[in-house]
């Protein structure tokens, strides 16, 4: 048996044990957690799609009126790029903003009684919600497998949940 100095408890340079990071005041019992179902999450995403499309239409309408007022040709490349960027920003702020708020859910998730938490059941930060939002791109790019794997994981996590360290709970 080889001696490994970095696993010796008396070595000041040894890696700390994971138990040293546990905060007993923040232990939550996650054994009785009910995770969001595949169909529930799908329905929430469908509702969120309707909401973001309505928001996008309103944003496009206001932007279109502003372009007409400024005598800008909407068929030019510049306005199209601007509208695309505005749509991406709107979807990101909607998703990450609501999931990191005290609601912990988008409107679709709220309608179905779902919340987004970290792995300890706490509210997620805006940064973590942002990572989760943009992680959905990877879940989609790989032929939606990142979404389809959700029912088969232990904590019912999709790929973007695993990457962001989040859970969707009922």
Q: Could you characterize the architecture of this molecule?
A:
The chain is mainly alpha-helical and 170 residues long. Helix content is 51%, strand content 5%. It is built from six helices and two strands. It has a two-stranded antiparallel sheet. α1 crosses α2 and α2 packs across α4. It is elongated, with a radius of gyration of 22 Å. The N and C termini lie far apart (48 Å).
Give the % helix.
40-55%
How confident is the prediction overall: mean pLDDT? 87
Total strand count, please? 2
Gross morphology? elongated
Strand-pairing-aware structural class: mainly alpha
Tally of contiguous helical segments? 6
Quaternary class: single chain
Low-confidence stretches: 18-25
Query: Largest sheet, if any?
Result: 2 strands, antiparallel
Q: If you compute it from the alpha carbons, what radius of gyration comes out, rounded to the nearest whole angstrom?
A: 22 Å
Spatially, the strands of the biggest sheet line up as: 1-2
Beta content:
under 5%
H/E element sequence: HHHEHHHE
